[in-house]
Amino acid sequence: MFLISDRSGRFSLLKSCCLALLLAPALWLGWRAVNHDLGPLAIKQALHVTGTWAVRFLLVALALTPLQRLFRWPKLALIRRMLGVGAFCWAAAHLLLYVASQNYDLAHVASEIISRYYLAIGFAALTGLALLAATSTDGMISRMGAWWKRLHRVVYVIAALAILHFFMQSKIDASEATLMAGLFLTLMIYRLAIWCRLPMGAVVLAGVALAGAAATALAEFAWYGLATGANPWRVLGANLHTGQGLRPAVQVLLVTAAVVLIAEIWRRLPARSGSASGQRAPRRA
Ligand code: HEM
Prior knowledge:
Distance between the termini: 39 Å
Helix content: over 70%
Structural class: mainly alpha
Radius of gyration: 20 Å
Oligomer: single chain
Bound molecules: protoporphyrin IX containing FE
């Protein structure tokens, strides 16, 4: 029951929604598996799905602090641990599927992880996530004191490693890896703005959104230029054409702008007691 109740033991709608969000892709994957809808390479397909959701949930966990500030909604902190541990569970399922894809030959799995860079990087990210999940209990938090916060800053390195692993296994199309990298870079730029004590008004937030989009385009340019044979200038130029669908840099810009706009509207809504908005912190000047 602790998964859907708050610290006082009362039912928490927020935690329940978060749990449903964490489980929904697993139910969908299970449904597709039962109905033989995963294609001839079902385990490989499931490996891709679990890896992708691990990165997505990790990024949502990292986005919680900025969202908490933007929406002035401190209760969002309730689901941070859940999302982090959830991301770890998805990554652990991902490793299990990899082991299954290698016919449970653990010696072979170990030698592959040692000999392939992208697997070694994934392993480092998974080890880090396991360490953070293991130290996420209330007991460990109070026992570790100030060290807990220091240790848990490693989550940014873990996310960077996971995204690098994502890029390295992407074949011709690195769009989703670029999108994840772009969202991660935007979060880092936001943190940098906070660290520089910039006033987080509309102008700075618009600047963060634009810088995040530019960083995404540059990350994509660098990846195609350094790691593939593709012409990076053509990839960069594609951001200016709408005919090929929305490029990752544009998606990052739209997502960030939408979040900032919704947060602005949310903050202007009158606070109602008992509702989620009624639990928001008082507006700061
Ligand atoms: C021991 C640890 C890990 C192993 C052995 C591993 C292995 C793999 C393999 C074999 C693939 C597919 C490669 C292909 O299709 O050729 C893959 C893809 C991927 N992995 Fe991992 N991985 C590990 C850890 C992680 C972690 C910790 C994350 C994220 C937090 C992650 C995220 C991903 C993602 C996002 C993909 C790409 C999915 C897609 O293409 O849609 N992996 N991994």
